[in-house]
Amino acid sequence: MSSMLMVVATCVLAQPGAPLVHLTFDSVTPYVADVSGHNFHALLHGPPRPADGPRAGTRALALSEGTWLELPEARLLLGEKCERGSLALWVRPDLNPAGLATGTWEGWVMLVYLQKRSGNGLPDGYNEIGLALHGPQLRAKVVAGEDTGPFATVPCPLKQGQWTHLAMTWTPERRCLYVDGRIAAESKGQFQATALDDFPAEVGRHPSSGKWFLAGAVADVRIYADALSEAEVAALAE
Questions:
Q1: Rounded CA separation 214/205 (Å)
Q2: What angle do CA 127, 153, 73 make, to 5 degrees?
Q3: Of 79, 89, 126, whose CA–CA distance to 110 is shortest?
Q4: Who wins on pLDDT, 31 or 15?
Q5: Burial 160-192 (b: 16+ CB within 10 A, else e)
Q6: Rg of the chain on CA atoms, in Å
Q7: Which of 41, 39, 40, 58 is nearest to 50 (CA)?
């Protein structure tokens, strides 16, 4: 089956409100199972370090320098032209984000990132979708060819050793960043679709440079093919 046919099949299978990817970390082996039913399993690079999740009975995965999750090709998840979608996850950093450096080549921490294949060493290029920290700021980005900057940059809400739920949603007219189920920032306009290719999506590392690791834990990682409503995001953060 060609890549294009696989993209079409994915879009048909995805139901409104149902995730394309859902990682619960109930079992952490070299592969982390996608429980959405779409079989977009993640490959764990590094030792498995299961942890307790944000809610009683839930599980998480601890990441560190040199450890990250590799998901399938971004275009298989969201299509070669992505107009809309959502990312959501819980994050518990081991570090204090307020102490991160702010230099051009330092102070980056990648949470979730999808992008078109590129040799760019920084998360500042075209055709990128992701959540990242830079210095004491949280950056949410969905861009095509008209811009390279994030649609939202806010003071980092993450606290060392504490769980925080983050989400972002995007459509051709609106981008929203959520913190603990509430809108933290939004941008309205007429936005181009983000081009994606065979570059894999990653959790906890920048796909292009192979750097900017997350030291901390993640839980309940979700990717959607449509923009969640405010109520749906709030429900995930409960």
A1: 7
A2: 30
A3: 89
A4: 31
A5: eeebbbbbbbbbeeebbbbbbbeebbebeeebb
A6: 16
A7: 58
pLDDT of residue 13: 43
What's the rounded mean pLDDT across residues 77-101? 96
pLDDT at 3 over 60: no
SS3 202: strand
- The torsion angles phi and psi of 78, rounded to 5 degrees, stand at -125, 5
Q: What residue segments make up the domains of the chain, in order of their start?
A: 3-236
Q: Which pLDDT belongs to residue 6?
A: 38
**CATH value of 3-236 in 2.60.120.200, 2.40.160.20, 1.10.10.1150, 3.30.1490.20:** 2.60.120.200
pLDDT at 14: 47
Looking at residue 120, its pLDDT comes to 79
* CA distance linking residue 55 with residue 237, whole number of Å: 10
Does residue 7 carry a pLDDT above 70? no
Residues in the chain: 238
